[in-house]
């Protein structure tokens, strides 16, 4: 491709409403243009990247045995009524009426349509397993679309759906998709993690999210750099940080800690590290309580007296509500009110502790706290703490539970090293749906004994347009985007200095351009005759990973100037060696 | 691809509402499945054909220098209001409201969006010419969707839009697209014609339709098999069928022709061929008449006396209303009423003629009639005709005009042979839009002198999904579809007889399958273990163009059985020669 026959329109500044780097850079590079809120046109530059992603996704789906089809964007309401999602789905579901006043939706997802196809097409166990996929434009009417293609309203998805006879079949189909997803993100040149995830609203059990790692990601992920372990921080297992509890060394002592309601303050006053302190969190469990949306909001107690729980965490740790919610009997927990605390502990929050509490209080210690010795807790007396506290000697052994969020440096639950914490952008999701949709829509097959059984389904999504944004969030600098080769709009740009003026430069540029094309490299020759500063700024902003500069000065020495997009400095290369050098670099990038 | 890993689901019968062959066959072959009226899922088999069409379209668009982008399906109402089409477009425009009650449409076409992009991105004459295209799902809310993908509501289009500085630039861009369209339909292996067309509602001037020739087509096309000439029958030039008028031979004679109000009857009574008769059509032209939607409906005359026109056509010819409408002064013409005719001609219709009519009657003779001699007309007396009529001698020379529809055998207007008439299915359309949209939306650029000028636009559509139906209408038989190689879901099918039973058959089948794959052939191996009858019927219905049958009997002679989809009989081929034979046949099909 020659730049003169392409459409390049870079901008100095991004519109003010572009909040994050990928959105700003895609607009500035001219990859997308806004048509309406959350609705974009992919300009030729942006679409080249989209298509490269699609090719890789398609190849890996096919390799995994999935069959491509194409379902309609406009779906009849009847199918959504059958699945109950017509009422369950919120205003994100864009509904409309045709000229005959029949109701339709613009599909945000296709479980209903594919299940309708399956119930009509699949009659026998012999027709399974089968996995269908499509790459298609979808619509989700986000209340506040933002971040460009990262959370747009109209977006491009790859969605796949597997149909199996039973749970074992589903698990096999799921595993195949899981592996295909790994290959896809690897081939795309992205640093990513497959993260065990709780299921969202789709229902069913067993799911993983695929996250592209980026500082700007919405989700916190705990992972082990030495292994494949990864989980949302909320779901990651927190192991005890102390292997074996030490013998008591200190005497139980009450010390004055005026105005020290936080562990940090206590540690500072006593001149010890925060890791010797233990914080107390008091919960109230109302009898017959309903699950509340935000259970950590203190509330007045109900009619009957609530049960009081005391949670003990190390001073530097934080409570994990997801784990807390899974403790037996925790349904309907809430933070105890100050009145309840004073009634139970005889003092106000800030000086609470497990020693001398009423027997009715149930004490839970986090796994780490349970292994501590000579630790510090509140004295249940305002302005005082107890030091040298030891389990067994000074208070009974506690109920032990995993109560805290993991932190960087924690041992990995798989025993293979220490956890790191990073942020991620979800670009893929694999789900074991089970029979949620096949039962709702009556999608059954006849098993070997001729009995009708519901098909067992999985669903598997990749946000194609979202990958663009995520890849940029992971790969950019002050000058612009740094595309991984696999999805770069162009792999190489040739920047000739004095293209219009110098016959020598023009000939050399056209020569190496032709050679690179012949080698199958996706190269663009900047024949616009722009000044070097403009050319370099454009292509650095656009993020082409390899650049070859051709100048009269260099040609005198038979040399080109090569610079990788991440290189600090250019390198001189022999003219004749340049194509092979670039080819080798690109080949290396594609090896995975 | 192996059939066991694919999804094949053929039907014995098509649903009753499938009216035409392509719709029936696509359903029976399992290429599409209905989701709602005019809304289909492309099953894996159908999508393979779609994707092959898309690849060819994309290649030729790129070759013509067009740049691919992707505009959104959901478009804001504001753009349609700017172009006035929000009110002009009928109920085919699917309108909807988002959660904030803002109005949108699902785009049936993208003139507004692309013009919006152009006005924001193109500032200078230096940025043109440029042609953008996309391949995208569109929606048109047809009142009565029918014929499957031929007139669906949701459909796949390639639409392109060119932007030029002036009319000359537009004509160049138009020509490039015109040529690209020719290459596309040729490469697809379709018999087609580019037909000069009147513009439809889009407005502007200069347009061609591309028609796939098929007996079931909606449009009648006159074309010259010896040249590229083609036009809609309504627009085709009808040349005189007589080169030079003969000298009068016969005497003007009044003959009795009782009950002969039609030329056919007159010719029969007189024992002459229809080509000697001339029919009279009487029109009334009302003064200051408005153009009427159906002008050939007789109406009572208005306040003032209408002008009477007498049109003369050869007995076997038919009047062309489009041509009539273009005669100077024809605005507001209508068929004269019987009262008007009797008042003017003194007799009732059926026996009218140009001799002895009042001077106020304007006589128009079709080009052929004007060259006739010794012809027959009505005598303006009930039950009588005149024979031996000659121009100049018996009546004054007429005003000559092209008034008739062409018929098969007419000389081609380009002088290169005789016209044939066929029926066609419109699959493409190229338009010179001009400044219709750039003026409405204010899409201007600065010319070389720095003056703002409206961009001059062209638009170019191809109905990707419609091509599927059209290709089938052109290529099918009683057994099913006969795909052109270029868009066949598979190019070759290997049908092994006794695949599960016979190790020899299995080995041979897998061997030739591997060999064909290696040669880059798109081959499917039917490893389902079905009986030969089922296998053959399936693949003939699906329309795979080449078939290789492998049986134990053949293998004894080291032979396979080859049969092209159009071949009446199979041919025996040496096992070792089979791959090369098939490869050669497919290569030949792709040569264009």
Automatic annotation (TrEMBL), chains A, B:
Aminoacyl-transfer RNA synthetases class-II family profile domain span: 33-484
Location of this chain's protein in the cell: Cytoplasm
SUPFAM superfamilies referenced in this protein's UniProt entry, alphabetically: Class II aaRS ABD-related, Class II aaRS and biotin synthetases, YbaK/ProRS associated domain
CDD domains on file: ProRS-INS, ProRS_anticodon_short, ProRS_core_prok
Keyword ATP-binding: yes
Entry-linked PROSITE patterns: AA_TRNA_LIGASE_II
Reactions accelerated catalytically: tRNA(Pro) + L-proline + ATP = L-prolyl-tRNA(Pro) + AMP + diphosphate
Main subcellular localisation: cytoplasm
Leading EC class: ligase
InterPro entries: aa-tRNA-synt_IIb, aa-tRNA-synth_II, aa-tRNA-synth_II/BPL/LPL, Anticodon-bd, Anticodon-bd_dom_sf, Pro-tRNA-ligase_IIa, Pro-tRNA-synth_IIa_bac-type, Pro-tRNA-Synthase_IIa_type1
Keywords noted in UniProt: Aminoacyl-tRNA synthetase, ATP-binding, Cytoplasm, Ligase, Nucleotide-binding, Protein biosynthesis
Family the entry assigns: Belongs to the class-II aminoacyl-tRNA synthetase family.
Protein's name in the database: proline--tRNA ligase
Source organism per UniProt: Linnemannia gamsii
Taxonomic lineage of the native organism: Eukaryota, Fungi, Fungi incertae sedis, Mucoromycota, Mortierellomycotina
């Amino acid at each position: 491709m020659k730049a003169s026959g392409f459409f390049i329109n870079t901008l100095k500044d991004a519109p003010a409403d572009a909040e994050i780097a990928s959105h700003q850079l895609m607009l500035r590079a001219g990859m997308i243009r806004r048509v309406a809120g959350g609705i974009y046109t992919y300009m030729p530059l942006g679409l080249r990247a989209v298509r490269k992603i699609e090719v890789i996704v398609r190849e890996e789906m096919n390799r995994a045995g999935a069959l491509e089809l194409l379902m309609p964007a406009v779906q009849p309401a009847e199918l959504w009524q059958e699945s109950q999602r017509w009422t369950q789905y919120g205003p994100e579901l864009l509904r409309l009426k045709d000229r005959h006043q029949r109701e339709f939706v613009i599909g945000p997802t296709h479980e209903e349509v594919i299940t309708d196809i399956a119930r009509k097409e699949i009659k026998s166990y012999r027709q399974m397993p089968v996995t269908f996929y499509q790459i298609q434009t979808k619509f989700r009417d986000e209340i506040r679309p933002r971040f460009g293609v990262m959370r747009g309203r109209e977006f491009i998805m790859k969605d796949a759906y597997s149909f199996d006879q039973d749970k074992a079949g589903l698990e096999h189909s799921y595993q195949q998709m899981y592996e295909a997803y790994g290959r896809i993100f690897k081939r795309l040149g992205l640093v990513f993690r497959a993260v065990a995830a709780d299921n969202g609203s789709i229902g069913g059990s067993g799911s993983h999210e695929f996250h592209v790692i980026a500082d700007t990601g919405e989700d916190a992920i705990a992972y082990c750099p030495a292994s494949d372990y990864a989980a949302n921080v909320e779901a990651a297992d927190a192991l005890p940080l102390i292997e074996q509890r030490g013998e008591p060394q200190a005497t139980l002592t009450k010390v004055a800690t005026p105005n020290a309601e936080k562990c940090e303050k206590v540690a500072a006053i006593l001149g010890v590290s925060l890791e010797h302190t233990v914080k107390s969190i008091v919960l109230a469990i109302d009898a017959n309580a309903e699950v509340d949306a935000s259970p950590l909001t203190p509330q007045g107690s109900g009619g009957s007296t609530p049960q009081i729980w005391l949670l003990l965490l190390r001073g530097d740790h934080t409570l994990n509500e997801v784990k807390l919610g899974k403790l037996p009997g925790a349904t309907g927990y809430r933070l105890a009110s100050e009145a309840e605390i004073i009634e139970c502990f005889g003092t106000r929050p800030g000086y609470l502790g497990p020693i001398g509490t009423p027997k009715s209080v149930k004490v839970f210690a986090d796994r780490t706290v349970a292994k501590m010795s000579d630790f510090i807790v509140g004295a249940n007396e305002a302005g005082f703490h107890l030091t040298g506290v030891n389990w067994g000697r000074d208070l009974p052994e506690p109920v032990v539970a995993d109560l805290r969020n993991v932190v960087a440096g924690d041992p990995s639950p798989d025993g293979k090293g220490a956890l790191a914490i990073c942020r991620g952008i979800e670009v893929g999701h694999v789900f074991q749906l089970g029979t949620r949709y096949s039962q709702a829509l009556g999608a059954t097959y006849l098993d070997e004994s001729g009995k009708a059984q519901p098909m067992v389904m999985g669903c598997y999504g990749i946000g194609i347009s979202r990958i663009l944004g995520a890849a940029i969030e992971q790969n950019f600098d002050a000058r612009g985007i740094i595309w991984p080769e696999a999805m770069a709009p162009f792999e190489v740009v040739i920047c000739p200095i004095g293209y219009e003026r110098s016959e020598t430069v023009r000939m050399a540029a056209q020569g190496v351009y032709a050679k690179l094309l012949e080698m199958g490299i996706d190269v663009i020759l900047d024949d616009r005759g722009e000044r070097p500063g403009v050319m370099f700024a454009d292509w650095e902003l656009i993020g082409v990973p390899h650049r070859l500069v051709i100048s009269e000065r260099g040609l005198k020495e038979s040399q080109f100037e090569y610079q990788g997009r991440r290189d600090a400095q250019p390198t001189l290369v022999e003219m004749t060696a340049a194509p092979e050098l670039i080819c080798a670099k690109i080949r290396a990038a594609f090896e995975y």
